[in-house]
Specification:
There is one protein chain. By secondary structure, this protein is an all-alpha fold. The chain has seven helices and no strands.
């Protein structure tokens, strides 16, 4: 199926955005952000069309637009470490946007951005100013050392930073797990204490009920005994009175 006019415009603008992302941009540069926003609108319209591209191609367009959007968001972060971590999780495109590309432009941009962020982190750690080296000097350094070896070194250093963060997260997870276990043990101990207190209270209530019943029975018995004593006393007095009257 031939590409529609909207799809061709999207491909042209996407290629332009990839070229801008590969350049060293001024912090006040606004075009890329506006272009990416236009890409999002065009992609939404393309998905609504009846003659839209194949799902695999639409997913590839979405992947590249999301990559560019994530790249802009990562550049707005304050620290180099945060930027490096954010760039690490970006997913560049899998296929070239134009036939002139041998490697997907977004993949090249991804490698350049990771190397740039790693260089800034290294400069911050060593206390050097990354702006002190001019563009020409940086180009000479890259020519001497080689772009591939520099990217490999950047990847290794970035992996070390990520490993450090992963170790911290694992340590935090272990501490949280230990805290959860301690809380569980304390909860179980408190439940046992409450259970024992309830058992003791129930036993005391049963004993109180039993003592009350015994006390009631004893009171009834004493009442019956008192009544009998009164009856006998009346009979004795009556007998004495009769004898006294007979005399």
């Amino acid at each position: 199926m031939a590409a529609t006019r909207l799809e061709l415009n999207l491909m042209r603008l996407l290629s332009r955005c990839e070229a801008l992302a590969a350049e060293r941009r001024d912090p006040e540069e606004w075009r890329l952000e506006k272009y990416v926003a236009a890409l999002e609108d065009m992609l939404r319209e393309l998905k609504k069309q009846s003659s839209k591209p194949a799902p695999e191609l639409l997913n590839e367009y979405s992947r590249k637009v999301d990559f560019l959007k994530g790249l802009l968001e990562a550049e707005k972060l304050s620290s180099s470490t945060e930027k490096a971590l954010a760039n690490q999780f970006l997913a560049p495109g899998r296929t070239p946007t134009t036939t002139k590309e041998r490697t997907p432009a977004t993949k090249t941009v991804h490698l350049q951005t990771k190397a740039r962020c790693t260089g800034k982190m290294r400069s911050e750690l060593l206390g050097t100013d990354p702006l002190a080296i001019s563009d020409s000097e940086e180009l000479n350094v890259r020519k001497r050392k080689g772009l591939v070896s520099d990217e490999k070194q950047s990847v290794v250093e970035l992996d070390a930073v990520l490993q450090h963060h992963q170790d911290m997260q694992e340590k935090l997870a272990e501490e949280m797990l230990s805290l959860a276990r301690s809380l569980k043990n304390n909860t179980l101990a408190a439940q046992n204490v409450i259970k024992q207190d309830n058992q003791t209270l129930s036993h005391s209530l049963r004993m109180a009920d039993q003592n009350f019943e015994k006390l009631k029975d004893e009171s009834d018995r004493l009442e019956q005994h008192a009544k009998k004593s009164v009856n006998w006393l009346l009979w004795i007095m009556l007998i004495k009175w009769v004898k006294a009257s007979a005399r």
